[in-house]
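User: 2-amino-1-hydroxyethylphosphonate dioxygenase (Glycine-forming). Structure?
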Amino acid sequence: MNAEEAVARLFELCRAQAGADYIGEAVSQLEHMVQAAELAQAEGADEELVLAAFCHDVGHFCAPLTEHNSMAGLGRVGHERVGAHWLRGLGFSERLAGLVASHVDAKRYLCWRDPQYLAGLSLASRQTLDWQGGPMSEAEAAAFETDPLFADSLRLRRWDEAAKVPGRPLPDLAELEALALRVRNV
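Assistant: Predicted structure:
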């Protein structure tokens, strides 16, 4: 699959999320994705990290949700791995896929490391934390800290948690689509 086809497939799927509930939050799945990317851009993240912020939850909807992989109506168990695998299949980089794959571990790490982060989680995010293994253990945290994507994973996770502002208008996705094409072509 060439870059244009991969990006078209990604954005066709993402645009379909404009009306999809974002697992108990007051924004749609697409609003959440766009807000995460905007937060990354506002902090000066590189284009690959911006796209990872946009794509981090693609695993919730790129494959069928069933009663066996549902987190009681709060999304898909293992969505981070499903999304990373799907993005690799579209030819996106290992770094981008790795950032998508690690955003749940970053949540678990921050909940272990920072009690204020844990206390500030939305209700839905606290509920999914239980499905995701809860806060990391000290040994898990020590291992995660050695991951080359560790720092960027934490940044992405904080954008993920902040990208839940209701009522923000959705921009035209053409700029993000062009960014995705540049990232895919690298």
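The chain has one domain: 3-185. Residues 3-185 form a domain with the Hypothetical protein af1432 fold (CATH 1.10.3210.10).
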